[in-house]
């Protein structure tokens, strides 16, 4: 057990409190911590052994309840970013001077220097430092919480003065809505819900007539006149806008509409349809390197094994100190920031769970890396723009970009790429040899048999071997490693560094890191589900808030989502007001054929389906034209066969029933002839059974039992006479 930066220690005995670990010295003997429960507390430096003893004895535990600011950069307004950057400029030089900053006298001198430099007051600097430490010790901790300002959603109690802007085109000033008036509005809404003939405006008018005035008789004319009650003669009635506002605020209008409609109509028309090298580092986590390469093997689709999908892109993240592979990602997009994000998200994932997804069982000690580094080195094309902002401001990771055409700056990770293919190329069909595309050479694309999951399983098995058994040649050891007899194997170097050179690893919740680093896009809320790239999703949030019902009534709208390009089963809807910032949505039954696929494979499948439909379009149109031609010929032939009738229209209508009976008799005779058993052409020798004629019922006793027309008065009279007999 060890303490890491960012850990939260929860003490349950005595006075409960939460403490955040701000710093751990390189030897792991001391750590700085801050009491998050007491808002007036200051950092203290204590012995690490004491905290570990408390955790081991059960008096304390490592928790993940402390506040942590996780906000996608796109959701932070420019003014908020400017305020964050201004406060960060105030305290950056102070908080990075560890461990001096944790001494009260030293910190006081630093604060005084910052006051002189920036021309601010002491409370401004102290408040920024305290906010930085308490909210995760990352620059984004300094973002303002304006969402908590103004008492949004809290009910205000009106006084006598009219609120809101004065009325311009009214003879009365209006009135404030108090609890008594809101109760009256409630009665009107209940009437509106029960009476389908009332619309909202009619319910408002009915309410005014019942509760805000009375009829009186004009003595001079004798006519009844409606006048407002005395208390409303000066102020006027509540406006329709006030009535509608409070009705919507105090009632679930979707539930009101359900009550106004029958269940059958609601279900039919309203409901939603768902359905560096070691010399430049001083311990594990000091610097990670990330790079991508296109693997020299062709893969097939998981959805159609006969379909070749090309070569995968392999992303690897390596800890420079120990050479351990701490993160990996295999995808189908070319090297880009999307793949780099997913590889970095994998660095904080539990490798035990990750390997188990692909059928490989390991112990945590075989792959213990699930942390973010202090510094990350990568290519300019992969670590730029949005990724830099997230890593620096949300997780306080320093970004180093390799210069153009200087891959040697990432020599550690580049070397690993040469080791992995060497292990599996002799066993993998579809691997590209050096004679590829030479005249007479083999087309290795046709040998492809592995899909992306198979290839991932192979790579993971080799990475587990590499981390635990591959001995590094030419590794420049720390003097202490030689004294302790540590073999140059990545996992052994990592474990030695954790004990002797630690203090730089940071632990963050895996789901927060994954959400922050995933690609962001927009999806559409429809009555069938949340539509994204032709797939439909649903989850607790849209069902709880009736999104799909609203979409069917009011139309579609856009929502921001994050997604994992490799797994199309889930999307993550942004919910800025929620504690974690997102809610997970899963594929609905409407898109069940796309389960367990990646967005690349789904896109290819949709493209294939579109091609099939496009190829059939001309033939489909031709067949439709042929069918319509037959229809036209039949109609023309029938029209030509019809002769002018000498009967009146009334006579023709009266003859429908006997004409039907005559036609039915002819049809029966023809159908009996068609079903006779025997050879066509010699019907004299057909074996025939005895035909027993059925006597047709008298037209005067009962109507034709096959005639489903409504009985006439004469038919009913005949039936009654027969019953009397």
From TrEMBL:
GO biological process: DNA integration
Database matches in SUPFAM superfamilies: Ribonuclease H-like
A Pfam family matched in the record: Mu-transpos_C
Region spans: Disordered: 144-172, 662-725
Domain Integrase catalytic: 280-487
Domain of life: Bacteria
Molecular function terms from GO: nucleic acid binding
InterPro entries tied to this protein: Integrase_cat-core, RNaseH-like_sf, RNaseH_sf, Transposase-like_Mu_C
Transmembrane segments: none
Compositional bias segments (type: Basic and acidic residues): 152-163, 662-685, 715-725
Annotated protein name in UniProt: Transposase
Organism: Sphingomonas parva
